[in-house]
Amino acid sequence: MTAALSTVTFDVRAGVLGVDGARVACPHCGERDRFTIRVVPDDAGEAPVYVRCWRDHLWAESALPRRVFAELLARVAAEDPAAWAELNRVLAERGSFTVGM
Ligand SMILES: [Zn+2]
Questions:
Q1: Distance between Cα 15 and ligand 1 center (Å)
Q2: Can you give the residue ranges of every domain in the chain?
Q3: Using one digit for the tens of pLDDT, what is the confidence trace for 33-83?
Q4: 39 in Cβ contact with 66 (< 8 Å)
């Protein structure tokens, strides 16, 4: 599907819920709205993703296993083939893609 090192960055502006149902918060400053989350689309494991808040704090978020984002991208592929094709075109060209959410 994509090269191994291609990354998709989720640009979160209004918070994100973890698998425990609670809103993700920065452990350093408590930020709950603005984060970036960088994922490798093919990585569907249970390891946590790294989240960076807008104040540049970085942490491994155990409430967001990598499979959550793999499933999100699989849903885009199934429900919006045009968006999926565009995402893969950009990944092939630049190796990265940013999604606002
Ligand atoms: Zn922070």
A1: 13
A2: 7-100
A3: 999 999 988 888 999 999 999 999 999 999 999 999 888 889 999 999 999
A4: yes
